[in-house]
Amino acid sequence: MVDLSLPSWVSKGSAYPGQAKGGKLHADQCHWAKMLENFLYLVSVVKVMSRRTIMEQDILLYEDHMQRYLQTLWDLYPGIELAPYQHIALHFGQMEKTMFQKFCMLQNLCVLFNEHLLP
Q1: Local confidence pLDDT in tens for the 119 residues of the chain
Q2: Are 32 and 13 a contacting pair, CB within 8 Å?
């Protein structure tokens, strides 16, 4: 973190984040923190869906983080319209319980997406 270079338009953050002596975040820092939080929810969702095996707690984590991702997206960009794939992604957890968990793990999905390679 010491060697991190920031663009000139980004103010330097506190050396003591989360501590009283670190002070409060400025508006632009708060916005960047919310954008990072939003991105990390999306990363978590992708990581869960990319696992070779899916357990019940993974499905619950996926559903929670997908909802949080979309909520923080709406908080960051008020008035944004939900894309069809984002709406469908809200239902993947339910599909996971019925279909993916039984027979469509990641390796099987790869075969389906590359079906033109099959005889």
Answers
A1: 456 676 676 666 667 766 777 667 677 778 888 999 999 999 999 888 877 777 888 888 999 999 999 999 999 999 989 888 888 888 877 776 666 555 445 556 666 666 555 54
A2: no
CB contact set of 16 (below 8 Å; sequence gap of 6+)? 22
The answer as to whether 6 is a domain residue is no
In a domain, 50, yes or no: yes
* Burial class (CB within 10 angstroms; exposed 0-12, middle 13-18, buried 19+) of 40: middle
pTM for the model stands at: 0.66
Task: Note down the domain range covering 38.
Answer: 26-117
Whether 16 is covered by a domain: the verdict is: no
| Number of domain units in the chain | 1
Instruction: Give me the torsion for CA of 32, 57, 63, 49, rounded to 10°.
Output: 80
User: Any idea which residue has 């790869």 for tokens?
Assistant: 110
In angstroms, the CA 52 to CA 49 distance is 8
